[in-house]
């Protein structure tokens, strides 16, 4: 009887430790944050995407996620992983000038892209590391830069030629690593929808094909994730939507036409297509430029602002990297080169562009879908700003101490179980 009691006690202890170990494993969440660049909020219905719809049915879907202004790729990807408006994290546009550094930031310039001086805030991958977890990134703005003194534990230098299936397989391999090497937070980026949207417009057949290919990639990832016995949450986002530019004379203004007759020695101009920055110390001459631009025959196609005049809801204009004078194109109009304008009109080529004010055009609306053990099922929510994704993911990962951010967990907390 005594031996049986001892044996029963040992079995109970073993069982208890086994349950504890199992519970610890199951309670350690994982998040895959995916961006399909340029995936507009209505593409799922517009192009009938079965895998996106399956994820939405089983998880959470927003009517749209509102990008921060300007609705450009680099500022918004970095906003998603820092929870800060571009004005506050410092990556204020795809292209801009920093007078203190005397450097112009450009997304095509590898030296400045990898310069940590341009990046403020604490990205999710570093936040995760500070909380004794590992992080990984298969392409994301900022992930290839030593921000706050470190990189993600696993990351790749951006190379758009890397096949998309290879990116998916790499994520799965990370999740199959031993537990002490496995990243709890992974970011994953795809550019195919954005590229097609630019080249053919949001209504083009090639854009439809790209959206359906994105749907296949999502289906592949979900299938592979379901084969892994881990509590994995998938959060699907995009940085912005896409707005159609029709191939007609009135749709385009060229930079030489906009700047015609101005003294180029008195200012620096950086174009971003949907808007442009004027930098200059001569405030009197900048005021003169503003008056000239407002009286041009094409002035109904754009608006001109000094920083103090910018709409409050943009949360934009306090950073020194924003132009002292700012010209914003109205929806349907775009700032470009004479060559690109001529080509678009000659070929009658419909294009897609972004960067516009999300408050003026719904076309800038991005996507937000989430599915996994930490999210409710079959839930629809309204529009929200992309600054709130950061505290949401932090909460899923059990991180409660956050740096100063603009996002607020309370906005998306209702979607959590």
What keywords describe this structure?
eight-stranded mixed beta sheet, 20 strands, 417 residues, alpha/beta, four-stranded antiparallel beta sheet, Alkaline Phosphatase, subunit A, 2 domains, Gyrase A, domain 2, 19% strand
Description:
The strands form 6 sheets. This protein has an 8-stranded mixed sheet with strand order 7-6-8-1-9-18-2-19, sandwiched between helices. A 4-stranded antiparallel sheet has the order 12-13-15-14, covered by helices on one side. A two-stranded parallel ribbon has the order 3-20. Residues 5-26 have low confidence and may be disordered. The chain is α/β, with parallel strands linked by helices. A hairpin with a 3-residue loop joins strand 12 (268-271) and strand 13. 45% of the residues are buried. Helix content is 35%, strand content 19%. The two termini are 47 Å apart. It folds into 2 domains: 29-243 and 359-415, Alkaline Phosphatase, subunit A (3-Layer(aba) Sandwich); 249-349, Gyrase A, domain 2, CATH 3.30.1360. GO terms for molecular function: hydrolase activity. InterPro entries: Alkaline_phosphatase_core_sf, Phosphodiest/P_Trfase. This is Phosphodiesterase.
């Amino acid at each position: 009887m005594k031996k049986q009691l001892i044996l029963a006690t040992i079995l109970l202890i073993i069982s208890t430790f086994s349950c504890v170990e199992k519970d610890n494993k199951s309670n350690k969440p994982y998040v895959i944050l995916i961006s399909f660049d340029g995936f507009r909020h209505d593409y799922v219905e517009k192009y009938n995407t079965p895998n996106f719809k399956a994820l939405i049915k089983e998880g959470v879907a927003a009517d749209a996620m509102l990008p921060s202004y300007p609705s450009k790729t680099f500022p918004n990807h970095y906003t998603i992983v820092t929870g800060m408006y571009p004005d506050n994290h410092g990556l204020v546009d795809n292209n801009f000038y920093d007078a203190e550094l005397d450097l112009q930031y450009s997304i095509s310039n590898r030296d400045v892209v990898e310069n940590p001086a341009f990046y403020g805030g604490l990205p999710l991958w570093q936040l995760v590391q500070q909380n004794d977890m590992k992080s990984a990134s298969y392409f994301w703005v900022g992930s290839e830069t030593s921000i706050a003194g470190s990189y993600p534990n696993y990351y790749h230098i951006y190379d758009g030629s890397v096949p998309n299936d290879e990116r998916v397989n790499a994520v799965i391999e990370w999740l199959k690593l031993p537990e002490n090497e496995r990243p709890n937070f992974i970011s994953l980026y795809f550019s195919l929808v954005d590229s097609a949207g630019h080249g053919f417009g949001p209504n083009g057949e090639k854009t439809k094909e790209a959206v359906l290919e994105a749907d296949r990639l999502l289906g592949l990832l979900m299938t592979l994730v379901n084969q892994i016995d881990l509590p994995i949450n998938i959060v699907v986002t995009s940085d912005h939507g896409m707005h159609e530019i029709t191939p007609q004379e009135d749709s385009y203004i060229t930079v030489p036409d906009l700047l015609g007759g101005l003294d180029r020695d008195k200012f620096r101009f950086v174009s971003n297509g949907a808007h442009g920055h004027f930098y200059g110390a001569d405030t009197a001459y900048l005021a003169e430029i503003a008056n000239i631009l407002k009286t041009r025959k094409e002035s109904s196609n754009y608006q001109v602002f000094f920083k103090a005049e910018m709409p409050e809801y943009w949360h934009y204009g306090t950073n020194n990297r924003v132009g002292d004078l700012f010209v914003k194109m109205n929806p349907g109009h775009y700032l470009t080169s004479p060559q690109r304008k001529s080509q678009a009109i000659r070929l009658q080529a419909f294009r897609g562009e972004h960067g516009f004010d999300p408050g003026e055009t719904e076309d800038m609306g991005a996507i937000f879908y989430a599915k996994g053990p930490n999210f409710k099922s079959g839930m629809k929510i309204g529009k929200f700003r992309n600054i709130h994704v950061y505290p949401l993911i932090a909460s899923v990962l059990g991180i409660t101490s956050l740096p100063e951010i603009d996002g607020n967990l309370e906005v998306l907390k209702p979607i959590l179980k």
